[in-house]
Amino acid sequence: MKKILLLLVFYFVAGFAIAQKTLMVEKIGSSRKYFYHAGDYLKLRVSHQDTLLKGKLWSISDSVISVAELRPFDVRLSDIGSIYKKFAFPKKFGRIVGVGGVAIFAIIAFNHLINNEQVFTPDMFIITGSMLGASLISWSLSEKRCRTDKGWKLKVLDIQIN
């Protein structure tokens, strides 16, 4: 009986300890939603000062968030012009394909040097150029700009697990 009672007390205490505020960015009229918690890295543009802030989301209150690279900088939710959402897969894919393109260029050039052939050939530039182009396209698609004046909305959610 003591174990069950202790487990119930621990469950309720842990539920109150997990309570936190969450910043939600959602597209109006759609089901796309992105969530940010304290400690997540964030990139946003403040519209009034026209500054770009990057750093860790330090704290979230009802109408103000703090973004910190070295020291916390308070930003009102109404002043945020856009938030940039990062996607990990396109960035990793772009990096891998870019390094692969450079490696293939070096391998083909080394092979041509060993066999006493012309070092730079058109097929070498076509293969590695297309790989580097795919890398740049993938890297540019790894970040999405969510503008608050173009249908995106910021909300602060107070989540408690009881």
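^ that was protein a. below is b, sequence first then the tokens
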Amino acid sequence: MGTLKKFCIYFLIFIIAFFLLNCLTSLAMEEDYKNVNYEIKDVSPEVNVTECKAKYSTGYIKGSVTNNTGEYIPLSYMKIDLYDKDGIYMGTEYKELKYFNKNETIKFDIDYTYENIDRLEIKFVDKIINDDKEILNIKPIITEETIHISMPIAGALMFWYILPY
């Protein structure tokens, strides 16, 4: 009975320490984020940004988009251009707006991983465009074809390291 009681006490101490450490870590990390300036280039659809923050290498933007065009939008993209404090273009993030009915409001939450972001520009486009003004073919990095190619190689490497032992 004494061993079970000790185990329960240690388990309870572990749970309390785990939650306390997570809470303190999240509080410490919250202070790293700073507010980021943003500029909304388009009036329609209406963008309402509620939170726009960044730290050294990551950031996020939260808000909502309302379709005030009076028309149904089958497919559109919210384009967010990211700039550093010197005004140098760092990259672009997109949020797809699909089946966007008139007077409908959609909430968005976009995370990005660019360094030293100080300013954002938000606008709407019909297509995802890269720097060369060509339409990107967005494909997942890991496709079925890459899995079929890499699995035999991974198996051979595994046997290469396991067999000598």
